[in-house]
Design brief:
Largest sheet: 5 strands, antiparallel
Number of strands: 8
Shape: globular
Strand content: 35-45%
Distance between the termini: 32 Å
Number of domains: 1
Structural class: alpha+beta
Radius of gyration: 12 Å
């Protein structure tokens, strides 16, 4: 997958609703649910890079491996690799 960067909330939420992460480590059937659970109801920045064979976009494998989703000072990051990790932080 080509890297993607979005800055419009509606486009970000739509894209997140089409991403599923399977395999080892952090998994989810819909990345949108994780963002909403973290408090990102109107994200203003999204970036996805890399390739992960166990990540799915629109039910197709080999979606992005790394995701950064931000709303104001709250950031949700998903790091792909052998074992996927989720990290939620508030930036200063």
């Amino acid at each position: 997958m080509e890297p993607v960067t979005l800055t419009h909330s509606e486009a970000i939420l739509k894209l997140l609703s089409e991403i599923a992460l399977r395999g080892q480590g952090f998994t989810t059937e819909c990345l949108l649910f994780e963002a909403l659970d973290a408090g990102l109801s109107e994200p203003d920045y999204f970036n996805a890079t890399g390739v992960d064979a166990e990540a799915y976009y629109q039910d197709q494998p080999h979606a992005w491996a790394t995701y950064h989703i931000r709303q104001s000072k709250k950031v949700v990051m998903v790091y792909g690799g052998t074992v996927r990790r989720l990290h939620i932080a508030d930036t200063p």
